[in-house]
Amino acid sequence: MKKKKSKPCAVALYTLGGALLVTGLALLVTAAVMATWLIPGRKETLASDNPGGSKLEAVQKTSATPSLTSAPYTEDSPVFINSTTSAKIKSTEPLTTALPTTRGPQATTAVNHCAKNPCLHGICENKDGGYTCTCSPGWTGHNCQKDIVECTSKPCQHGTCANKDDGYTCTCSTGWTGSNCDQDVNECVKNPCKHGTCVNKDGGYTCTCPPGWTGQKCEQYINECTSKLNCQHGTCVNKDGGYKCTCSPGWTGKKCEQDINECTSKPCKHGACVNKDGSYKCTCSPGWTGQNCQQDIDECNSKPCQHGTCVNKDGGYKCTCSPGWTGQNCERGEFSYSNLYL
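Request: output the structure for the sequence above.
Response:
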């Protein structure tokens, strides 16, 4: 009966021992893996793995940034296989080469030099170890802090230049426009000449006025009547843009400067006409009088018929003599001594 009870106990002990052994191996492997992670770049091998004998060698992996080297290895220096166990492995020859260590890529912190906005009037571009500024128009300098004085180059062609931050402005002279006062204004578009023809010119215009008008815009009429040469022989009446002459008798023309030849109309009815400036004169035939010799002279008023009766006629008279008298004026007697010798 006792032998039957001891057999299950032995099986249990064997099982427990195997489980502990497996657990220990698992812990040993885990420790070795963790040691590899904690010390990157180092690989340790036992002497039995090397063809050279029972030496412990360290193989270094390639690294861009090596760390500080460890202390020199000696015979008494322990070699750590994992984080929990260590063994001192002696070698017949001292290991004088220091065990190298390596580091992975170091993280670099980028500095943003544009964070403080150093470019006062421009755009900042961050670069390794510094920055550059692209200045706005009208600014210069490392930080775009200097204003460019554009007026020194005289950009305003027909005006006055005023410098301003980030630019300039032009105050154009009369007749010019554009950002640089380089464009001529065509004033004739607005028809400034009230009574004339507009001629555009650089920076202005001129008006060609018709007769009777004056002024820059032909807006003032000329009083031609102030000049006595306009109506020489007549009365002047001023009008917008001109004048009119009312000529005196015997004169004609715009300025009453032409004499009328009245004799062409034969004004002297019984006489000869003589033209004169502004008039005429009639030299009347005998028996006629008046300006145009249109009036008959009554010669009978002067009693020309000495011994007879006077009868007036156009341009003359006739005497009807008394008996015994004869002659144009009845001045001779028929029985006078003068007739005796006839």
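The two ends are 246 Å apart (CA to CA).
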